[in-house]
Here is the input.
Amino acid sequence: RKNLHLLSSEQLELAKMLIEMGQSHLFEHWPEPGIDDEEKRALFDQLARLNSSYPGGLKSYIETARELLADSKAGKNPFDGFTPSVPTGEALSFGDDIFMNYEQAGIREARNAAFVLVAGGLGERLGYNGIKVALPAETSIGTCFLQHYIESILALQDASCRLAQGECQKEIPFVIMTSDDTHSRTLELLESNFYFGMKPTQVELLKQEKVACLDDNDARLALDPKNKYRIQTKPHGHGDVHSLLYSSGLLKIWHDAGLKWVLFFQDTNGLLFKAIPASLGVSAAKQYHVNSLAVPRKAKEAIGGITKLTHTDGRSMVINVEYNQLDPLLRATGFPDGDANCETGFSPFPGNINQLIFELDPYIEDLKKTGGAIKEFVNPKYKDASKTSFKSSTRLECMMQDYPKTLPPNARVGFTVIDTWLAYAPVKNNPEDAAKVPKGNPYHSATSGEMAIYRANSLILKKAGVQVDDPVQQVFNGQEVEVWPRIAWKPKWGLTFSEIKNKVGGSCSISQKSTMVIKGRNVSLQDLSLDGTLIVDSVDGAEVKVRGSVKNKGWMLENVDNKDNSVPEEIRIRGFKINKIEQLEKKYSEPGKFCLEP
Ligand code: UGB
Here is the structure.
């Protein structure tokens, strides 16, 4: 009470509310006025931020936490009354007519889309010291994930506007959700690289705030053990993206600009944009309010399962069930083997890759009701079976894919299953953990993420008629992977299968030891026989035809030790580096027609 004069009237209101909500422990230890006054004010500044950044404020946070903690203590099943079953969705087959039609439709729609990258996570499982979007997606071209995403969006924008035959001036908006852990480094990466060619006004960073940690089942806010004038905080999860988009006013701006779609994606999937055109086409054709991209899932793989949940009262929904909840849910509802593969060798539940496509108008209508608040969960680690105290403080969390849980039953919620090789190769696991992944399950490491890009590009060119040699098996960082020819291209070279097919002619072949890097838009391959390394770069106005035989010593992959600190971390975590022995490299800086025939 003696400290009251230190607080503003707003802070006094907040203090009163907190005391009423059983949080007096936050101030009980305060010494006499005159001691630590600045720190006391700093605590209230932080409390005010925590209060204003959570929908409904700290009161609502504490109330929800108490409810969820009581449910958790009582062992309440979050799926009470629901029975899971395998849902039906659209399954695409790369390169067939249906796929190509969807791709065309998707390209047409792209100019009416906005993209949202959730990149607030530090990636504790990966253990990388930088931000994950700064990691190279692959090391032959060497572009980082963020650059790859921006170039993919720009390529989509360009392709979409070309289809509109010059009547289109639209710039696709790109939002990045950051957090205190990633914000300044993301901004610095963008600024020091001139936004990788995107207009700075096209990019918007929205920073999510962390939420208060909780010490016990009464949801007493946790003081930082190292600073008794600070509340301990932790990330709230990627679900924050919805309330941030709503409160930023961006959704209304997009609506007024005539946009129709919002696409959400995660930080380290180098394949994703190969699947975007077709899946956006599916959303448009099926008029889905929500479309989740999915891939065949291996049982126990750390990706959620898309599941149909039917309640005893008749309600049903198609929703992601997170990987740690799927097994207990199945066991409790008549599937004694739990999360197991079926006769196909995969789980019957498609795997959620958390690439979500929303139709903008219904999304806005729903958020007007909810403010973007997403159903939360809590996952306390209890000290013992009495469940009365925690090993360490906990907090509420939310996931962006839980958005459909608040939708009315008539909402059109669907999903699109795409081949894993084409759509999904995230970089999430550190080398040690990846090496322990059960055989046959994906590693989700920097090594497998890079190899997956080469494999996808090889398979796409094969399908387009190129004779691409089979891969060899190699072990890097304890992980056995298929090593295909290192084929990499900039997104503007080919976003859709029909575009790529049109750039490949005659009888082309690429040997396994080869590397091919295409950086220009108008580069075509005609009767090319590649056995070595070929790099072609060109300005947009240059039309380059590559033909004939290219043979040189090429680039070799050399093992590096993950523990060798003399090697940069982003290379070490792959377990290999590229030894560039010999290559044919050509750059065309002027417009015109050219033939590269060695
Ligand atoms: N992220 C944020 O932006 N803020 C946060 O507070 C936390 C994360 P993880 P996880 O498709 O691969 C998700 O940690 O736990 C960003 C789905 O829930 O990689 O592996 C972060 O930067 C799961 O259903 O997610 O699980 C990153 O971009 C499954 O689909 C993204 O959120 C799985 O991803 C995901 O963070 C998958």
Q: What stands out?
A: Residues 118-121, 177, 179, 235-238, 266-267, 302-304, 320, 322, 352-354, 399, 401, 426, 428 surround UGB (CB under 6 Å). The radius of gyration is 26 Å. The chain has 16 helices and 33 strands. The mean pLDDT is 95.
